[in-house]
Specification:
globular, 6 helices, alpha/beta, three-stranded parallel beta sheet
Length: 122
């Protein structure tokens, strides 16, 4: 379940998802707390898998990201906090032996394949 309203990130929401083995989609989005903050929320991992969508830097509008990053040919605004959060999710899911479905968008830094390479250390 992907919400883009930070006020929903509370115990009743997480309890409902957990009751149905549905994952909260950790998402980097303009009006959401950073991924690292969502990861730190007690009970945010609600299923036997997790989903992450690294879409935008907090506070950046989608239209602004398009204008800044087009033609998406290189990383134009490195986001170390998002990269570290993605690494933390990978580490945690490996340790807990749970699946992680991680999606990185060009509008996070300017070039998703390069962001992914940087996260996994290639």
């Amino acid at each position: 379940m992907e919400v883009r309203n930070r006020e929903y990130l509370a115990t009743p929401y997480f309890d409902c998802l957990r009751a149905h083995n549905a994952a909260h989609v950790l998402n980097a989005w303009t009006r959401m707390p950073p991924l690292s903050s969502q990861i730190a929320i007690e009970g945010a991992f609600t299923a036997d898998f997790t989903v992450v969508r690294a879409l935008l830097r907090e506070g950046r509008a989608y239209e602004d990201a398009v204008a800044k990053f087009t033609p998406y040919d290189k990383v134009r605004d490195e986001n170390p906090e998002a990269r570290d959060a993605l690494r933390e999710v990978i580490r945690r899911m490996r340790e807990e032996r749970r699946a992680a479905y991680i999606f990185v968008n060009n509008r996070l830094e300017g070039n998703a394949p390069e962001t992914i390479r940087a996260v996994i250390g290639e």
